[in-house]
Amino acid sequence: MYPWLTDCFNQLHGRLMANKLHHGLLLQGPQGLGKTAFAEQLAQLILCSHVTHLGMCGQCQSCVLLASGTHPDFHQVLSDKQIGVDAIRDAIKKLTGSSQLSGAKVLLIHQADSMTESSANALLKTLEEPAPNTYLLLTTSKPERLLPTIHSRCEKLSLPLPSFEITLNWVSSQYPEPIDQDFAKLFATRPLALLAELNQQQDDSLTFSDFKHDLEQAITGHKSLSVVANAWQAHTDKVLVWLQFWVKEQALGAIEHRAIDSWLTLSQQLILATQKAQNPGLNKVLLLSQILTFAAQASHSK
Known about the structure:
By secondary structure, this protein is of the alpha/beta class.
């Protein structure tokens, strides 16, 4: 278990041993926190035939089948897009009747916020009146997208966020190269997201260091805005996220000098640019050039 989630997991372990674990758990937290691993290990704990205060045994038939991915009483629902009603109905059917191993049954719904309204409604009765010894685990990074009726039938558990120091220390133990702390702050409470981005940058033609250098060159006039925009166009979505972080940092410094207005304007322009960037056929070089113009103006207004 990830160190920032260990205490929370141990609390649920204790409740399970005391037969006080709620049958429907909604596990909430940002993407890259470790919700999937947390939910999967909790399912393993619930299903273990010889679980003790030390944890799952790892040797019983249930643990062996889980390890091989063939446990008959563990079911998952996951979709790259929306979770449709048929997927939920099929999962519910698997929960009916007795456990095949004479133990608990677990249904894990990944990214439950991607359920359609019909699929969410199909789940309600099972959430309200589950079969005996049946547990439903739902994960979400966007709880606001879930129906209020789903919220009301689950125990909501917001997984703890690590401090920036914990995030940096853990990622440093997993990543062999030096880590730019400014870049790490983009994922301050999402260690897995930071690690994934660092690994991706090894194969990416635009790194955060490149971005910072190009931005500095553009706003000081040492490099043409259009040249920088052209270099960034293939990474528009990522660059807009990085720019939002940069603007936030600049705005915090500007508050002390009461020069915040330009940064607020730029922040609003970035929100609009992020929306526009989703339109196919958009001239991304022009969009980024306009944003860089606003960035240069804001920087010179200090």
